[in-house]
Design goal:
By secondary structure, the chain is an all-beta fold. It is 0% helix and 54% strand.
Length: 309
């Protein structure tokens, strides 16, 4: 009988200053990964894990996102700027700016037309890269003192979701407000991710020190359920086949895996590493993830089939 497990591969590419990894991303073709720490952007080869190029920015970095066609990468900085890099020629293609300061997460719309940047407050900046529309500020008008705000587009690009206090604010791709997803209690949502098959959306929440993982249908019409997490978790990412989610885990350093169908731990086992993870991204074509540690180390988890009698 075949049993599945995710095994870690610690990459040699890392931050020599041991600064915390702010974000990681994987190119749409799965061939390259990227990470940022301090003012440094690192792009590496997925198969070998080796570094391809290392770029220096003028301001500290917070978030990364590859364009849907893989030709560019957006790098968001503390000073409110988003730099669009041509990852083939490593040249700066465009700079976007916001008056609301730095970001905690950015997302590229599936059609490549828009970039959403989530600020420290629940505000979201929405940029139209075609230039046909001015930049917009999306204000959910909810209180939040958690600091970190996350943002994500649905796979079809029709819904833009962010995180806040007691709610998941939602907008259309153009910025029109939609019905928010809410919960009861003193709850802060920390991260959000749509399933690649558009079946569901997952969000991590903290309520007075207790962590929970929530699932809704992607259109927000129905709450699927929630899972009590055993320790602090701040980032979530779906497997490429939408069968489970990975979250950064503190009780077992590295990752833990959870099933939205059973609302319990996934049957796929994951081997831990002795480091706490601060950033997480999923491979677009296989059951694999990359994470960055609090000390600038990068780890890839990949699926392996193990024969058991």
């Amino acid at each position: 009988m075949m049993s599945e497990e995710l095994l870690p591969r610690v990459l040699s590419a890392s931050d020599p200053s041991r600064a915390a990894t702010k974000d990681v991303a994987i190119a749409p073709d799965g061939a390259r990964y990227a990470a940022c720490f301090g003012r440094t952007v690192l792009i590496g080869d997925w198969a070998s894990g080796e570094e391809i190029v290392r770029l220096q920015m003028q301001a500290p970095l917070r978030a990364l996102a590859f364009a849907p066609d893989g030709s560019r990468m957006a790098c968001a900085c503390d000073d409110g700027s988003i730099h669009l890099l041509d990852v083939t020629g490593q040249r700066e293609a465009q700079v976007l700016a916001s008056e609301h300061g730095g970001y905690y997460e950015i997302a590229w719309s599936p059609d490549g037309r828009r970039i959403a940047g989530a600020h420290i407050d629940p505000l979201v900046s929405l940029f139209d890269l075609s230039g046909s529309e001015p930049a917009k500020t999306l204000d959910p008008k909810i209180f939040s003192d958690e600091g970190r705000t996350a943002v994500a587009f649905s796979p079809d690009g029709a819904i833009l979701a962010s995180t806040g206090y007691n709610a998941i604010p939602r907008w259309s791709a153009g910025g029109q407000r939609l019905k928010r997803l809410g919960v009861k209690g003193y709850t802060f949502f920390l991260d959000i991710a749509f399933a690649p098959d558009a079946s569901a959306v997952a969000a991590i929440a903290e309520t007075e020190g207790r962590m929970t993982l929530h699932f809704w249908t992607a259109d927000g019409a129905r709450k699927i359920g929630k899972i009590a997490l055993p320790g602090f978790s701040a980032r979530v990412a779906w497997s490429s086949d939408s069968s489970f989610v990975a979250v950064t885990a503190s009780e077992t350093p590295g990752l833990s895996l959870w099933s939205p169908q059973s609302l319990a731990r996934s049957e796929i086992s994951v081997h831990g590493v002795s480091m706490d993870m601060a950033a997480l991204a999923a491979h677009p074509a296989r059951r694999a993830f990359i994470a960055g540690s609090e000390h600038g180390q990068l780890v890839i988890w990949e699926e392996h089939g193990v024969t058991k009698s």
